[in-house]
Amino acid sequence: MQLSPTLAWLVDVASDSAGADRLLAELGAHLVADGVPLAAGALTLEVPHPLIAKRTWLWRADSGQVIEALGFAPGGLAPDPPNDAGRRWLRDIVRGELHEDIVGRQDGPLLSWIGPRPFTADEIGQLRQAARFAATPLAVLAARATLRATLDAYLGRRSAERVLAAPLRRDLGETIQAALLYADLRNFTTLSETSPPGEVIAALDAWFDRIAGAVHAFGGEVLKFIGDGVLAIFPVVEASPRPACEAALRAAGAAEAGMAYLNAERGAKGLPPLAFGAALHLGEMLWGNIGAANRLDFTAIGPAVNLASRLEGLCKPLGRAVLVSGALAAETDMKLVALGSHSLRGIAAPCQVFTLPKT
């Protein structure tokens, strides 16, 4: 049996599609070329993500445009829309008199089509046959999306890209320059020993939301949650490190403001405030795989990381929430307050220390 161009494409090429948006657009275009009258289509994938329950891509036949709509998980950023939200949205935006939509699959990835007139029996047969042949490339796409979403959630976007692009060997890494942010909570041991576990976890989550949210908002990436601590980087991607340094400074300021707001909320509930310390530094580090032969970790190590950690330890004795090294301060025109030169445990040379001005 000779396959139609659409089915041949699904068998030979579709599994290599760059993403769900391209698969949907190209499948729609192939079906139109085969004579199926389509106005629009939708493809929905469920993804294992802390905030997103599913991702839906919406395609318009008249323009070839594909946009993405997100369905949020319970407790995420917004209520999860109904399962047919994508198809209802398509009916709303595509001009002209629309008729029934044909659902290709319901036991996994959801593929559906809308026509400008009722589909004939032959056209329905073509769409259903295409859906059967699409099962394998959709499964490949879903598995790829699951892997990527899982790595993004546990490693961060940049680190996930690096892990996916390289062999799983511990001798692989690269030296990068970045602004580092190292932060942790004060008196966390006392909190964990005097509070119920649920209250401790809630406090940790609230703290991580503020610090990680600020890091991500300014283009950084959280590399590690270390107990109650956070290690984040702002990689230098331009000729000058200034943008990365100023992004790190803005993130630290945003985290400080976020924690002030959180502590006001905690105070209204009769809960103690959460104090924290954060240190910013600019330097080079090895970014890559370390670990045992069969158990790897992807992280950043090196003198710059050590200095950031030691500098954070000065926050409490200096009475400041955020400290900035001289190396990072030299790469910004943002206003900082000099705190003098200080010795850091395990670091040979004294460090010039700065802080953010009080607001």
TrEMBL record:
Q: What Gene Ontology biological process does one annotation of this record name?
A: cAMP biosynthetic process
Query: Which Pfam family name is an example for this entry?
Result: Guanylate_cyc
* Official protein name in the record: Adenylate/guanylate cyclase domain-containing protein
Q: By its UniProt entry, which SMART domains does this protein fall under?
A: CYCc
Q: Where is the Guanylate cyclase domain?
A: 179-312
User: What molecular functions are annotated in GO for this chain?
Assistant: adenylate cyclase activity
Q: Which InterPro entries match?
A: A/G_cyclase (IPR001054), Adenylyl/Guanylyl_Cyclase_3/4 (IPR050697), Nucleotide_cyclase (IPR029787)
Q: Which species? A: Bradyrhizobium frederickii
